[in-house]
Amino acid sequence: MPKNNPPEDHHFLPVFYLSHWQRGESPLVEFARRGNGKIEGRPRYPRGTAYQPRLYSNEFEPDAAKAQALETEFMQDLDRRAAETLELFDIKSTWTNEEGSNWSRFVWSLLFRVPEEVAEFRRSYLEFFHKVTSPDEERYAATRGEGMPETLVEFLEQSRGLAESSSLDTLKTLIDHFGLVQLLNGMVWTKLIALSQVPTTCGVWACF
After folding, report:
1. Mean pLDDT across the chain, nearest whole number?
2. 8-39: pLDDT as tens digits
3. Angle at CA of residue 187, ends 186 and 192, nearest 5°
4. The pTM of the whole model exceeds 0.85
5. DSSP string, the chain
């Protein structure tokens, strides 16, 4: 995808992963609570489900490519590496540490990348970002330059783009946490084969 035309639909469950749950070429069944309050299932192909428009975007960044950098420069690369490693699992009994890390990082990312978690993380980060104490205001007043807002609270209110960028950078850092990825690498990995009518690998799992 060209950088000047970044994708709008950000998959929190990527297409390569969802495709392993298909029965041949048949669509998946997406269950959701509809307008009538009932949970209903609808057929969906992997590319048409488990995404949210601009989920990982910085809406305060005017540059379209930079606004979606978390998706185009991080999430897509993470998913590509995981897809390549998953294919190896069918032909290899062991992985290298790099291959294992590619899959562990993907598994770990699933705890953070769903819409509800992304929204809650942004909310809590913004709350932390705007938490100002009296000493903070005093330090700001002592260093405030000409033309800057009168208070630190006002300055932070005008810096929402910075807060949003910082929150997305922090989310990326959590997903890419070396220690936790290596902890997952140290687990015993195996695979769960689907039912006989579904000739595909449904998932790769780990346990202590």
Report:
1. 86
2. 899 999 999 999 888 888 999 998 888 888 99
3. 145
4. no
5. --TTS--SEEESS-HHHHGGGSSTTPPEEEEEE-TTS-EEEEEE-GGGSSEEETTT--TT-SSHHHHTHIIIIIIHHHHHHHHHHHHHHTT-S---HHHHHHHHHHHHHTTT-SHHHHHHHHHHHHHHHT---HHHHHHHHHHPPTTS-SSHHHHHHTTHHHHHHHHHHHHHHHHT-HHHHHHHHTSEEEEEEPPTTS-SEEEEEEE-
